[in-house]
Amino acid sequence: xxxxxxxxxxxxxxxxxxxxxxxxxxxxxxxxxxxxxxxxxxxxxxxxxxxxxxxxxxxxxxxxxxxxxxxxxxxxxxxxxxxxxxxxxxxxxxxxxxxxxxxxxxxxxxxxxxxxxxxxxxxxxxxxxxxxxxxxxxxxxxxxxxxxxxxxxxxxxxxxxxxxxxxxxxxxxxxxxxxxxxxxxxxxxxxxxxxxxxxxxxxxxxxxxxxxxxxxxxxxxxxxxxxxxxxxxxxxxxxxxxxxxxxxxxxxxxxxxxxxxxxxxxxxxxxxxxxxxxxxxxxxxxxxxxxxxxxxxxxxxxxxxxxxxxxxxxxxxxxxxxxxxxxxxxxxxxxxxxxxxxxxxxxxxxxxxxxxxxxxxxxxxxxxxxxxxxxxxxxxxxxxxxxxxxxxxxxxxxxxxxxxxxxxxxxxxxxxxxxxxxxxxxxxxxxxxxxxxxxxxxxxxxxxxxxxxxxxxxxxxxxxxxxxxxxxxxxxxxxxxxxxxxxxxxxxxxxxxxxxxxxxxxxxxxxxxxxxxxxxxxxxxxxxxx
Length: 530
Fold this sequence. Notes:
8% strand; 530 residues; two-stranded antiparallel ribbon; flat; single chain
């Protein structure tokens, strides 16, 4: 009520306007006053005098859900004409060119009907509907759509004809073209034959599936040149020869370095090939042409791929030995993959986790360690069971303790095969002496070592088990003590062992499968090619 009293003088100037128009003018007026009196001063207090009115106006329109250009138009009209300029002027923007009288729900207009062309008056109806602003937009759209479809239908119904009817020889030739395999010439011949019979445009379009403009162009060319306009071009051997020469030249350029042609690049691009082609043969070739040539010749852009390799000179012999043992395991024989892990510092770890887009977890770069955890473990290939021992260091004594535990757990086995990588701890004198003494002192289980090639940790199946453990209990962890981390790791391994007791599956099939692991094909240990 305060606003109505405050601006009563301006509001009284539009009191005689229609209710609908007055309501919209008052709404626009109060939005403009709110921007000038409240929003703009408040924004300038926050951002200072540097804030332009344009930026403030855009921000205000965005907050109110208004179109910026509309708001600017209201602002300009209000400064020029006052509140009267804010009144909507429906059906008053431009005078109608037709004598139309609009009532509440009816339109009255004069139509002149030509007896020679009585449907011509529909064009007048179309203009009335287009110009009248009292018709609902949806009704107007549907009405104009129906009229346009009618006009198009009438236009396409007219019959086609040729300047000179076809002769018998021309009909035979066109019939032969129509029955041919070449789509373009077949459709062109069909259109000419139909036009010769006086068929309508719509029938020709439905038969040939081309546009109206294309049909008229075909008929125009035929009326001008007759059969020469549709004559099939015979295979051109010179064109094929030029194509072959281009392909040979492009492939020759690809097999050279760009620097030979003065191009400061190490890899080719289509633009660089085109530049080299012009430099070498003094002939222009487009990048699209080069792309087609490269595709036709079977070349494609491919990344170089890094592969894991082993430099061990005895790589092939060692791999064949492991494959022989794995594929020939008998009842009572066990095969173990052995490796050490750690030390894992007891601190806060990062990792992948679900979170909101605007939230980011942070991990301190420097943390005080609360201890460390490391262990040595063995994975049995047949039953997929893991045996582990937490240790204080990575020494030969830790490996000996693990082997002792394996002999106790699998004392009913005849033989135990151990495979590990080529680090010094595994080949230590203490380990080898203990194995020799054990084999002499007991008949079973006998221990046999089948080492992996040097630098071939990727062939040790137990590495994937350690990777899964790290994702499960190390990443995103923040253990308080080393004992708490050890308990989490041990519980993870126990759950894993129970899973494979309930769901038996051999370990390492993916790597050591005899159909996949071809020593000759994977010479040097190119494991990633598998």
